[in-house]
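Recall the central idea of this unit: under ordinary conditions, the amino acid sequence of a chain determines the structure it adopts. In this exercise we apply that idea directly, starting from the sequence alone.
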Amino acid sequence: MAQERLAGVSDGSVTTFRTDSVLRITLDRPRRRNSLSHNMIDDLVAALSAAAYDDSLRAIAITGAGADFCTGADWVATNDAGARPRTGDLVRRIPHTAHRVIELVATIQLPVVCVVRGWAVGLGCNLALAADFTIADAGATFWEPFMSRGFTPDSGATWLLPRLAGVARAKRMLLLGEKVSGADAADWGLIHDAVPADQIDAAEADLLARLAAGPTVAIGLAKQAIAYGQHATLTQSMNQELSNLELSCRTADFKEGLAAFRDRRDPDFRGR
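Accordingly, the structure predicted from this sequence is:
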């Protein structure tokens, strides 16, 4: 398969590669368990923003280099920076950085797959939860450590966890700081699947192949409608579905789907 190195790498800590129609983003800071520096977060925002309007892409994969997925924002480096920031620094900065990463993953009209090995902590945990499909090593660890650090959750934790796992389990993770294994995360509905470590690459490849071969426009519109339905009434959701149906029925993939059904063959979707 063709593989193309993309621009946007900052200090070697985020790498982006293209494998045919799949964008692969790797958090590449294994010595710090892929904790996210300011530059890394900026690079993630840039890579995802560019992917949002790249018509040749059909799926995105996010992984961590080495033994861990991501241990969250690099608070140690932030607090060792020297000069104290102005009051309100977090309120001004985080909506355009960490929160923007989560928003992009959740709203981009491409399917996003995360692969979690080792630790997924804080922002790293929420990144995995915001993805459309997360495959984890059954022995991986999902952890929201905010209370043990003495501050409140961010990056969508209080929105994602109750919706995915229910309020009681969200409180166990957010208020008690309980760690959750990959196997339990799958059982709770936090992630798509958990598999043995030696099967994770094959599971990722199979899932990405299915997604990249799908009707990309329809997948993106369905993803958008699911997110909209989380805060809408039934009638509002059905109206949104109608709008998306109107758009998806105008695609070449819709015509191909009908032709394949008529000809009793598998469709050959091109993402158009």
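Confidence is low (pLDDT under 50) at residues 1-12.
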